[in-house]
UniProtKB/TrEMBL annotation:
UniProt cross-references to InterPro entries, sorted A to Z: Acyl_CoA_acyltransferase (IPR016181), GNAT_dom (IPR000182)
UniProt domain N-acetyltransferase: residue ranges: 7-172
Biological source species: Thermotoga maritima (strain ATCC 43589 / DSM 3109 / JCM 10099 / NBRC 100826 / MSB8)
GO terms for MF: N-acetyltransferase activity
Protein name: N-acetyltransferase domain-containing protein
Classification via Pfam families: Acetyltransf_3 (PF13302)
Length: 182
């Protein structure tokens, strides 16, 4: 388990499945989560995903996010793609809507970034964020991510095209930040 000021990243538990499914099927969460058709996930799909988690994987890692104050499951984050040769990892995060704008997402990303740089010895972390997801963009910028490119009109959502922003954070940039800045 890896702790921040507000949250802990831990292994998923079977009892997280119901809440994860509820959060992921919330239309406001889902529209920011997947680039494909935002079709509702079934419990069977979430159970298969849970069964596929492998702590010995070298391709991806998924963490449940829980509040330090009471251990409540509030979302998840993952290292989705790992390029060991070039020391680059791609990440993603989601929180249930009741936990938005309370500092949990920022804290969880700080913990995840620290884990990737300090435990995995990666040189770069990258992510994709949809242009309409202002809340997420602010979180990533606060942590030190920089816009590296814009995939113009890459996403069709709610009847119109949106850009997908590619952001990255180098280990050297992160090391230059102090804990108070983070």
């Amino acid at each position: 388990m890896f702790e921040g000021k507000l949250v802990r990243l831990r292994a998923y538990r079977k009892e997280d499945i119901e809440k994860a499914l509820e959060f992921a099927n919330d239309p406001e969460v889902k529209k920011c989560l997947v680039p494909g058709i935002p079709f509702p996930w079934r419990k069977e799909d979430e159970e298969k995903w849970y069964q596929s988690l492998n702590p010995f994987s070298t391709d991806s890692y998924s963490f449940a996010i829980e509040k330090l104050s009471d251990g409540e499951y509030i979302g998840g984050c993952s290292i989705n793609k790992i390029d060991w040769k070039n020391s680059v990892a791609e990440v993603g995060i989601f929180l249930g809507r009741p936990y938005w704008s309370q500092g949990y997402g920022t804290d969880a990303m700080r913990v995840l970034v620290r884990f990737i740089f300090n435990e995995m010895n990666m040189n770069k972390i990258k992510l994709h964020v949809f242009s309409f997801n202002e809340r997420a963009k602010r979180v990533y910028e606060k942590i030190g991510f920089k816009v590296e490119g814009i995939l113009r009109q890459e996403l069709f959502r709610e009847g119109r095209y949106h850009d997908v922003i590619v952001m990255g954070l180098l280990k050297s940039e992160w090391e230059d930040l102090t804990e108070t800045d983070l």
